[in-house]
DNA sequence: GGAATAGTGTCTGTGAGACAGTATGCG
DNA sequence: CGCATACTGTCTCACAGACACTATTCC
């Protein structure tokens, strides 16, 4: 029965956002506190309904702007500044995932440089960056329960999928630069990899590898000394999106 | 406005299937001829509405069974025989992708061993395997137009995304075995890689690599001579799902 | 000077690709 | 026999990881 418009089950379609950033050497996700039932008072991923004439990506970009003020990179134009990377993650449609009605949520993954603490969006009374380690390690225990608790709905699962996507994607793409400001040093980029993967990397091999991959980094000519020590060259992201050879996660 | 159940835009949700197999050394996709408007008479990917109390994956598995008779592997149980691999691909929700109404389609990717020509499903009056090269190379030209034409809706895009997913996923996972019968030779597995990637591989290096990757292949003890030449050992898929080291596509 | 970070050089093991050579079936 | 396919061995180059060493800043 292909497409009988007169008799199809009614669905609500939402977008949920896994917004990741690196703050103080930790991978953090944006969560908002729910003001309504169900899961009132619990933390959840930001999201909302897709509008009637709105594309899915446009809905995700709109929600991202509402929650963070970030604009989205157009992947085709050389990114000027503090735009974010946005891509579709997966779709979650278990009939019981929302107790009130049938909701299909198209989750998106956004990667952003470190930002000032988020302003509360129009539709969320509280928002914060939380380390993903804390959000994902709630194995039924009571630790930090007041601080975080389990995320609402199936958002823990969605967050885990988003984090895994980010971890694997920075291996073979230049996406790690989306966590960095427009100009950054090799050391800053290395700390991004270390935070996302949760491992320590050899600074010397990392430097040789990352500067030797064509199209990954472009020197801007400037230097900085914001980390202490010898001044470091500043770079911006090069045109390459796929890294060849890839960066390899240790201990696989 | 998170979740106002009384006022959300109504959506129809469907699943579309990219079902791939390898036939006669070519990567082929399952297409069905549409019996209704719009795009009546054009080829399209199989698919249909998600039912009111049905999970997305269950809907995809149901459609797959209706079109091909295939059962889906449970990835957790050791796969006995000719089940298919099924995974979510991506979700397509452009407001204009269906001219009649707002339809969000959750596309799934299925990989199956070579099958007898498909029986027409209950909701499709014709079905066939077509080489993906023919389906994807319709650059506005008129060649093969009677045979294939452009796929209906945005299905060319969905198919292209599914093929690219399959091409990249057999690099770092053992998914290529999903294209093989329960027992197969190294040469047959190599022809799967060659068909999916569209390249020629060195049989000797391939053999050394694939038999040296732990957990990828398990010898069954039997041999076969169905390709002519010296009899080849028969294998079945091992327990490993992630290949380390990965198979690498040449010319990247 | 001492600590910290940036950047370069050198060695070694692993593995991919190229390809010689052997084994075993069919006609 | 020739031919096709299966399988093993060897060589070379590239690169990942380990780590010594130098450079430049701040204290």
UniProtKB/TrEMBL annotation, chains A, B:
Residues 10-154 form the Nudix hydrolase domain. SUPFAM superfamilies: Nudix (SSF55811), Winged helix' DNA-binding domain (SSF46785). Transmembrane segments: none annotated. The keyword Hydrolase applies. Signal peptide: none annotated. Keywords: Hydrolase. PROSITE patterns: NUDIX, NUDIX_BOX. GO terms for molecular function: hydrolase activity. PANTHER family: ADP-RIBOSE PYROPHOSPHATASE (PTHR43736), SLR1690 PROTEIN (PTHR43736:SF4). This is NUDIX hydrolase.
């Amino acid at each position: 029965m292909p497409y009988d418009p007169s008799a199809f089950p009614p669905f609500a379609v939402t977008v949920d956002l896994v917004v990741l950033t690196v703050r103080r050497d930790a991978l953090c996700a944006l969560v908002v506190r729910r003001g309504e039932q169900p899961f009132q008072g619990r933390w959840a991923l930001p999201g909302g309904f897709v509008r009637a004439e709105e594309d899915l990506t446009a809905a995700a970009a709109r929600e991202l702007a509402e929650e963070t003020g970030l604009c989205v990179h157009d992947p085709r134009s050389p990114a000027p500044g503090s735009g974010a990377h946005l891509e579709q993650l997966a779709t979650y449609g278990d009939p019981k995932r929302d107790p009130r009605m049938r909701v299909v949520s198209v989750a998106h993954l956004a990667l952003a440089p470190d930002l000032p603490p988020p302003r509360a969006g129009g539709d969320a009374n509280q928002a914060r960056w939380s380390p993903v380690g804390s959000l994902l390690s709630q194995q039924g225990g009571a630790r930090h329960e007041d601080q975080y608790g389990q995320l609402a709905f199936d958002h823990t699962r969605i967050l885990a999928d988003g984090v895994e996507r980010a971890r694997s994607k920075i291996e073979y793409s230049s996406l790690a630069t989306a966590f960095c400001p427009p100009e950054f040093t090799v050391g800053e980029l290395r700390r991004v990899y270390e935070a996302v993967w949760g491992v320590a990397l050899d600074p010397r091999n990392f430097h040789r590898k990352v500067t030797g991959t064509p199209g990954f980094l472009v020197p801007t000519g400037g230097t900085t000394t914001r980390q202490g020590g010898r001044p470091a060259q500043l770079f911006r992201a090069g045109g390459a999106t796929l890294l060849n050879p890839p960066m390899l996660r240790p201990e696989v």
